[in-house]
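Hi Y.,

Following your request, here is the sequence exactly as I used it, all 299 residues.
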Amino acid sequence: MPHFTAPDGTRLAYHVRGEGEPLLCVPGGPMRASAYLADLGGLSARRRLILLDLRGTGDSDTPADPATYRCDRQVADVEALREQLGLDRVDLLAHSAGGDLALLYAARHPHRVRTLTLVTARARALGIDFTEEHRREAAALRAGEPWFEDAHASLERIWAGSDADADWDAAGPFFYGRWDAAARAHAANEVEQTNAEAAEAYASPVAFSPAAARAVMETLDAPVLLLTGELDSGPRPRVAATIAALFPKARLAVQPGAGHFPWLDDPQGFTRTVTAFLKSSGGRHRHAEGHTSGSHSTA
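Below is the corresponding structure, written out as tokens. Let me know if you'd prefer a different format.
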């Protein structure tokens, strides 16, 4: 897989899937290797996916300074990848906790963002977070599921402070629209794909300056898509609508029956929504002169 070097000297990896116009993809987790994104439900048939392994995850090297796991410090990594790809502007897609990194990148480099696709994404960078109330609201929607009783009991223990693997495993169904074999296999890889130490540092409060980021978002020229799942707790559709209202050119798409990983719940619906947004946003990339293209906190 291709590599590039971050400004601090850390060697980072990215994976390329599919053909066509590039779509730079930032994983969540936080700090989960990009492998869990796979081909984003077949989106690689429509776009060339550039899947970044954040520092210390997947095939990227571990940085010398653990403080650089903070998501605001990783903005420079995304910018270095843009330069590596030789793109004047990027179509940027971020999932879950990766939303914070993508928003911080857009706040620091607004002129480098052509489109921004936020998939069940967090917005702590804008001062909006998900609460226990949101989690309970979404959990109540699953009361008719055969796994609900045991999974909900585990959620209650987690809300009370449990960090037991057994409780997080049992609560897994709440993150998926369908708790089928594909969802089980996807959930089973979470721990081994996640850098727990990095996840602890990723969303440090000092990483965010919400007022400053909001000020930039209010004038962001790039079209923004917020795609959320009907059954997801982070964000609930109404919270995603609040986030969308902060942008001058935002669209909200609520995927029926979807949880936190909507490309697994309805691959065709997911790819149709994202592709339609990217097509309607128009424009073609111009390559920059002199370059060639070449933990348990699911959030």
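The chain is about 35% helix and 15% strand.

Thanks again,
Q.
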